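2024-03-11 09:14:02 INFO queue: dequeued item Large ribosomal subunit protein uL13, len=151
2024-03-11 09:14:02 INFO validating residues
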Amino acid sequence: MTKTYLPSVDSIERNWYLVDATDQRLGRLASEIATVLRGKNKPTFTPHMDTGDFVIVINAEKIDVTGRKRSQKLYRRHSGRPGGMKTETFAKLQARLPERIIEQAVKGMLPKNTLGRQLFTKLKVYAGSDHPHQAQMPQTLAIQTIPGGQH
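2024-03-11 09:14:37 INFO prediction written
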């Protein structure tokens, strides 16, 4: 009879990765980030455990989308009060809070439970090219999405 491998909490190795979002496609970038956060790229992946790494995303304001999503894609949030729905297009949200676009895209690709909320805390998104995580010595993670395209 074969036994299922279960990594101990001490044996899980946590790395920090740096991703530059300049001219990357939103969905393709988000799915790669979600994979690394979840730990699916590691041989020690366990579905019910947090075996993933930390991801730092810089230049969030330079993320790219294809087609007419810049003017047609809507982001909704609700205050919790009657009539409290607020909608915003991609372009307006990118001008106001560019970090939220990547955060929402990645959050939607993580599990919708306690584990997913725990994994989401390991994502750090910054609008500019500088970040406060130099001490963790992040490795650069090269993610190749489709280069170029129509805007």
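2024-03-11 09:14:37 INFO annotate: The helical segments are 26-38, 69-72, 90-96, 98-107, 114-120.
2024-03-11 09:14:38 INFO item closed
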